[in-house]
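Q: What structure does this chain adopt?
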Amino acid sequence: MKPISWLQLARAAAVLAVCSPGAAASAAERVGVYDSRVVAYACFNTPENLAATRARVAEGKAAQARGDTARFQTLEREIKAEQKRLHLQVFSTAPIPEALAQLGPHVEVVRREANVTRLVSKWDDDALRGVPDADRVDVTDALVRDLPLNEKQRTTMREFTTKKPLPLWQAKLLTLFGGL
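A:
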């Protein structure tokens, strides 16, 4: 038997790398990207979500009126924490798991329609490292298209896309001091 040279080994390794299923999948991976600010804003502004928010505020006011300070303070803390979270999501690049959960099965429908392997926030540099621009498909509009929003809300969403988000560290600092 003839000895194998280093060059032949390198060629064989290259062929295996190209032909292996894992390599082919990663090379052909298409990733759906979305503007998390737009999706967070849209999900917050659905009639159901706005009604739930108004109900929590009304519950807090009722608790305060009847002297139930413990319940009032609990609701006040929860509402303020939610407001801070939403501000970080809408004005910066904070992750939006609640909004994606609210969209439920629609997320999977969008993923299939766009023929992408996964969805990633366009601001998540770590998750998008190694994914060429040509393999990124913007699915922002598809994620929010069926939400019952009015024209003013849709115009606001379009305006988000023309501006850069605040860096997350800066938004957190502003939120800490009540400036966001």
